[in-house]
Amino acid sequence: MSFKHIPAGRDVPNDINVIIEIPAEANPVKYEVDKDMDALIVDRFMTAPMFYPANYGYVNNTLADDGDPVDVLVITPYPVVAGSVIRCRPVGVLNMSDEAGMDAKLVAVPHDKLSKEYTHIQDVNDIPQLLRDQIEHFFENYKKLEQGKWVKVEGWANADEARKALVEGVEAYNAQ
C-alpha cells in the first residue's frame, strides 16, 4: 500500500481520510509515516509511560503551521490498526504550542457511514468532558521527560475551526 496516493477526503473539510499512525491505547511508541520511504516507521520510544487516548494520525495532502500534515485524533469505539485509513468528520481542535511552534490537533469521529455511535457528536462540546480532559492531560505531559521538549495547551476550538484548519491545510499544501 502506498500512503502517497491517499486523498485528503471525499468532501474536504466535512468528510476526510485520516491515516492512522498510532492506535488508541497502544504502547508508548511514536510512529510516523516517512514520506520518502512511504513507510510507517518508529519515530521514537516515548519516555513517559503514557498511551494516546485516541487514534492518532494525519490528513494526507495537507500542510499545517508546523510544516507537517494536519494532525488528527480520531475517537473510535476500539483502537484502529496503524497504517489504516479511516473516513472521518472533524468536530474540534485542541490548540497547542510546543518547542517548534504551533501544533494544533484536530479531533474527529468516524463518518456516519462507518458508525452511528458518534452521530450526536457534532462539535467539541459534545465530546464527553472526561475524554477531553484525558486528551489535554496526555498532550500536557507526554513530552515532559524529553529534554528540551515542552507543550502548552492553548484550549479547545469548535468544529468550524477544525474545518477551517483543513481548508487552510489543503491550500498550503497546494501552494508549495
UniProtKB/TrEMBL annotation:
It is found in: Cytoplasm. One of its GO terms (cellular component) is cytoplasm. Its main location: cytoplasm. The keyword Transmembrane does not apply. Mg(2+) 1 binds at D66, D71, D103. GO terms for biological process: phosphate-containing compound metabolic process. Mg(2+) 2 binds at D71. Keywords: Cytoplasm, Hydrolase, Magnesium, Metal-binding. Catalyzes the hydrolysis of inorganic pyrophosphate (PPi) forming two phosphate ions. This is Inorganic pyrophosphatase. It comes from Marinomonas gallaica. The gene is ppa.
